[in-house]
Design goal:
Number of strands of chain A: 11
Mean pLDDT of chain A: 92
Distance between the termini of chain A: 30 Å
Strand content of chain A: 15-25%
Largest sheet of chain A: 4 strands, antiparallel
Largest interface: A-B, 39 and 37 residues
Oligomer: homodimer
Structural class of chain A: alpha+beta
Radius of gyration of chain A: 18 Å
DNA sequence: CGGCAAACGTAACCAAGGTTAATGTCATGA
DNA sequence: TCATGACATTAACCTTGGTTACGTTTGCCG
């Protein structure tokens, strides 16, 4: 199986064989880490660039009152920000959600790649834009949608992202979120997330059970969510 | 008075005189536009890079049900994303909030600058990071804070940003938001924003009246907001 | 000056979602 | 086997913030 990171970038720009070779070589340092392992903690000096090769992670921020807000989910091919070398310290945490295979690219090497390889740079820009698009979509989600729509929208996003990297088959895919994690992502309480999931299940729209998402009625799901996947800029953007 | 855009970038990286001259020259095309003028509409092909020299603007997204979610406020020195040339079309709108002076830099010229001038590129990266930090802060705000905290937090952000560009004197500054706009930024209704503002006013924390913010008790305001301005990476980051 | 449009201010009522807490399920490991 | 702990489920109750509706203020333009 080939490198999820390289594959992702190939989807964003027409990398040459030389580009691919360079990127692949940069991923030589790979670790297996268990679920719940922190890759980055708030306050850390930013060091290598972490790349998800297998498994999921998420970025989050804690509030003084103990609340947690999840800011992004990372799935295979996703990576931490490349440009943070300008920062003195990280302003959020990143932790694995499942067992994961993580490559660490030395920041200097990353810089060198960007300087030497315009096509690679282009691919990074593109991925940067997609990430910003996701952040904006989350703001819209939290600001203007109600619970059911919010959960539905996040499920659409995650499903499409999984499908774009070839990890969804049919209307089903592995989405390893507990209701607690889901709640911290959509800005609700776990109790209410449970209510929402029940409602979606009874309405025969979707089921999320044991880390597995099953979309029963894709059209209805996208309708509820008001989902338009353009911001993900994948090959296959629309549900239904 | 010098160019707000160039000043901003100077704050992010040590630009040489030559860099400054190039950037200044790029801003030769300047327009005066009235309040409520759209710079960018969803669906437009992305063309020049818009730079705010004077006045405010904001980016937003409409929902099918007519709801509007504001995604960002642009103040002098801020600019639209540089890298969107990879996109086929814009995925959100940008409109002026006040009369404004706007420079339009041809995208090709921007590219050339980035290719030729590493320090300028560095400054753009930094500003990109700040923008992402702001987006993340908004997600936290909407997901995990209640109305009073939300409004307080946004006011802190805007005040500090204004102070960073020298447009706040003492505990006062011009923040040209109507309650409707504010509501669409924090994900509340105008009616409730009004309640919140009243409460903050009666508690002698802050007043927002006729486009002017007056912070009466900066420490209390920052406390309510749970504000930590690190993500803005300005020189003067903390209130109180 | 008068009339109009925007924005602000308030009140009464209501619903979405938070809180608390009890119970169920299931995998793990001693 | 039983204890443990994490997660899911559900119910009763309550709070925050949304809805609707209307009055007031302000600034602008004929």
């Amino acid at each position: 199986m080939s490198n999820a990171f390289v594959e992702r970038l190939r989807g964003y720009a027409p990398l040459s064989d030389a580009d691919v070779a360079l990127l692949t070589k940069s991923c030589r340092t790979v670790r297996d880490v268990p679920a719940g392992h922190h890759l980055i903690r708030e306050g850390d000096p930013p060091d290598p660039v972490f790349v998800m090769l297998e498994g999921w992670a998420f970025g989050y921020k804690m509030l003084p009152d103990g609340g947690r807000q999840i800011l992004a989910f990372l799935m295979p091919g996703d990576f931490c920000d490349i440009h943070i070398e300008v920062l003195k310290e990280m302003d959020h945490n990143i932790v694995t959600l499942t067992e994961a295979k993580i490559a660490s690219l030395p920041r200097a090497e990353m810089e060198a790649l960007v300087d030497a390889r315009p096509t690679i740079t282009h691919a990074f820009w593109w991925s940067q834009l997609v990430n910003q698009g996701v952040l904006r979509a989350w703001i819209v989600n939290m600001g203007r949608r109600k619970s059911e729509e919010r959960v539905a929208h996040l499920m659409c996003e995650l499903y499409i992202r999984m499908r774009n990297i070839g990890l969804a088959s049919g209307d089903q895919c592995e989405i390893p979120l507990t209701q607690i994690v889901l709640a911290d992502a959509v800005g609700l309480t776990p109790v209410h997330v449970n209510r929402v999931l029940k409602k979606l299940r009874l309405a025969k729209v979707m089921e999320l059970k044991a880390g597995s998402l099953n979309i029963i009625d894709p059209v209805k799901l996208a309708q509820i969510a008001g989902f338009d996947g353009n911001y993900l800029h994948g090959r296959l953007q629309k549900v239904g």
